Amino acid sequence: MRLLRSTDLALRILMRLAVTADATPTTRQVAADMDVPYTHAAKVVAELQHLGLVDARRGRGGGLALTAEGRTASVGAVVRTFEGEGDVVDCEGTAGTAPCPLNSACRLRGALRRAQEAFYAALDPITIDELVAEPTGLLLLGISRGPAAG
To answer: Which residues are CB-contacts of 102 (< 8 A; sequence separation ≥ 6)?
Structure first.
């Protein structure tokens, strides 16, 4: 299973904010640190804010901060939210393709659905705080400061 770019970015933003509790980086800073377009980072931050996982404040003294809910958020729940409820394969032909002729009697779709649920279930007990436990947290701090000067 391959995650959407937005799912990957959401997890990386949450992890970065989990290790920078004393700072409030801006969306622009986070986008630059992660080498992603600002507009993409802004959309992901807006969704994370809507979910109550990130506090985003504008203006002087503003920036991004992880909420208490963000710290204890289930990685599985975050991935489910960003990936959506769809099946791994498009059996119905909703993406502009013809429906699969085996759709009514196919066992593959159910097997893939069970595998997808097992994937999410494996991520459900893991929290954002657990993702940034040592030694990952120190590495993330180094990345968020950008390249060393000199």
So the answer is: 108
Q: How many CB atoms lie within 10 A of CB 31?
A: 21
Q: What one-character-per-residue DSSP string does 21-73 give?
A: TT----HHHHHHHHT--HHHHHHHHHHHHHTTSEEEE-STT-EEEE-HHHHT-
DSSP E strands: which ranges in 53-106? 54-57, 63-66
pLDDT digits 0-9 by tens, 5-56: 999 999 999 999 998 766 788 999 999 988 999 999 999 999 999 999 999 9
Q: Which two tokens stand for residue 49?
A: 């804010």
- 3-state SS class at 53: coil
Considering 61-65, 69-73, 135-139, the range whose residues carry the highest mean pLDDT is 69-73
b/e for 35-56, b at 16 or more Cβ within 10 A?
ebeeeebeebbebbbebebbbb
62 forms beta bridges with: none
Cis previous bond, 125, omega within 30 = no
Query: Residue 143: which residues within 8 A CB-CB, separation 6 or more?
Result: 16, 33
CA 71 to chain centre: 13
Q: What is d(CA 147, CA 150) in angstroms, rounded to the nearest whole number?
A: 9
